[in-house]
Every structure is written in structure tokens, then in C-alpha cells.
Give the backbone structure.
Amino acid sequence: MAIISSKNSGDPAPEPRPKAARSTARRSAPQPSLLDPSATVEEARIDAARPAEAADRPDDRVRPQRLGDYVGQQDLKDVLTIAIAAARGRQEPLDHLLLYGPPGLGKTTMALILASEMGVACKITTAPALERPRDIAGLVVNLQPGDLLFVDEIHRLPRVTEEILYPAMEDFRLDVTVGKGQTARTRSIPLPKFTLVGATTQVGALSSPLRDRFGLIQRLRFYEPAELTHIITRTAAILHVPITDDGAAEIARRSRGTPRIANRLLRRVRDYAQVKATGPIDGPIASAALELFNVDPRGLDWTDRRLLSAIIEQFSGGPVGLETLAAATGEDSQTIEEVYEPYLMQIGYLQRTPRGRVTTPAAWKHLGYTPPHDQRSILT
Ligand code: ADP
């Protein structure tokens, strides 16, 4: 699979998250965050028919290339295995697919794998880069039959661009307006049959006409520690990093259920072990390294702890509205909602209630506070 230009060009190589990137710049204190949701808005075209060169980039060596290498997400793999076999049998492109879930869970990776399994090229872009109708028009007219177009952060598509996609997805047709005023006419340009893979962290923010045009809508879930241990062991083997099972399990426990974070933490621990240790990465080395990088035993980093302690200290545990919490912590509300909250909710430290965000007794205890007796009544 050859990458002509990639949005993920090395380590650290987070996915395009323009809003989140802005918020990173606005953070009140320059604490290192291993979530690091910074942004690069570029396009990539990945040609599944031409193998080899991708292996030159560290991130792409680590990224699974085939469905068999993609760890976990069994339900998703089952659904897509059938979809691939059926599409291949009919010699048609795959149905349009919407993948949703928090950042770093493998949406882009799955799109690349699908292209690879179907033997087609994958064109990668991100919705904020498609500001004008001609941005999306330029992309779709250049697709080859069967190609896969991956649009990240698809819930951020501007309305005008989104409307161009409707006939393109449904009838493989591009409707363009020629001329101005009374002489304006609409012309239809036929498009090759292609597959749109949309990725989003906010499926609820998608308009229903757009959502309805996806034949498959699949959610990615957080990974189990055993699955992350597997991913870390696999990445360590690719990067030639000696690691014990305990070492991989320790990193997995602190990876917030997210492969991107697992791989990033492995690289940080590798650096630490290179300087401070002689043998392979084992449990104690991984634990000491991650303490140094401010990642606690539940995988919470400085920002997670700051969000929770702000709710506890300034709002007596909540409820507190998202915007108020954002103002109190100097974080961007969208970043809080899309990047930090999903995992805090997953591990039962935070709840979203109709009246606002509430910390749970488990969060109080984790941060060393004694939960008040009436905390239960807030949560019910
Ligand atoms: P997303 O698009 O959901 O933000 P990515 O697909 O970019 O996430 O995944 C981030 C990184 O995590 C990839 O570079 C890949 O190495 C790793 N990764 C993601 N999912 C898996 C998986 N199921 N198995 C192994 N590695 C994975």
C-alpha cells in the first residue's frame, strides 16, 4: 500500500482534530498531554494496489494492513467481512459506511484496511478541509471506480458541501450549477461508483439526510486491556522493542482503552527504558516511566484529573454545565466532550445528567477525596 501524502506522517501523529487543536493552544497551563489532539489537515491517497513504501513511516508500519491484523472490534469485523465478501461477489463497491467512536480507536485504520481488502485506492480527507463545494467536487470527480473516499470528522461538513454529497452518494452524480442569475442551469456529471467512509466522534451531530445515506453505520468501542496488551506486544515486535507480558499489560491498563494511546505510551516507555534500564520493558519499568509522564494507574493524565478535581472542588461534585466546566478549566468544550469525557464515563468516573456533569464516588476516591453522603442523590 503506497502512501502518496499522508495525514498521519510519524510519531506523534494524531488525526485531524482542528477544534481540539485550537483548544490545545488555549490550555491554561502547558502540561504535557499524551492524548495530544493536535491537527494536520492534509489529504492522502493510498493505493492499495501498490504495496511496500508505506512501511517507511513509523506509524504506518504499526498500523494493521489487513483485517486479520486488526485486533478486537469483533462485531465490526464480522459485519465488514460479510460486506466485503458480498461486494466482491457482486463485483461492486462496498456500501457507504459510517464509523463512529472516540478518537484513536481505529476508524482510519479500518478504512485503509477496507481499501486494501477490496484492492482499491483510499483517498483521505477531513471535513473541515472541504469548505467550498468545489473542494468535494474536485475529490469525487478524480476517484476511480470502486475507490474509497474517507472523510474524517464528517459531522463538521459545511452544509453546502454536504448537499453536494447527497446525489453523489445516492446516484453517483454530481450536480453543478453553471452560470449565474436567470441563466443559471444545473448540470449533472456522472461519477464512478465509489464508497464513502465517514468517521465521526459525534454521530448525533450528523444531519439525518446524511446519516440516512450510509448503508452501514458501525460503532467502535473502547478496547479491553487484553486486546490492548496484544496491540502493544504487536507494536513492540514491529519496532524491535523488547517487552515482557507484564510490561505490555501495565501499559495497556493505562491506555484509556485506546490503541493510539497504547502505541504512544509504548514509545515513551521505550525511551525511558533505553536511558534508565538495561533489560526488556517489564511491569515496574513501565509503571515508573508512566508515573514520570503523569499517566496514573487508571490511565488518567493531567487534564483528566484537572477536569474531575475542578468539578469536585469548585462545584461540589456537580452537576455543572459543559460550558461552565470549560470556562473553569480553560479547556475547549468540544475537546472535553469528544476527547476526555467518553473514557471518564466509560470507567464510571463521570456522568452526564440532564442538569450537567457529575463526578461519581469512584472519581472522588481515585483523586483522594472523601465522597459526600449525598453524592448518590445527585446521581439519581
Ligand atoms: P481513529 O481514526 O479512530 O482516530 P486510527 O485508525 O488513526 O484511529 O488509529 C490510531 C492508531 O491506533 C493506528 O495508527 C493504529 O496503529 C492503531 N490501531 C487502531 N486500531 C487498531 C486495532 N484494532 N489493532 C491494532 N492497532 C490499531
In short: The radius of gyration is 22 Å. The longest helix spans residues 259-276.
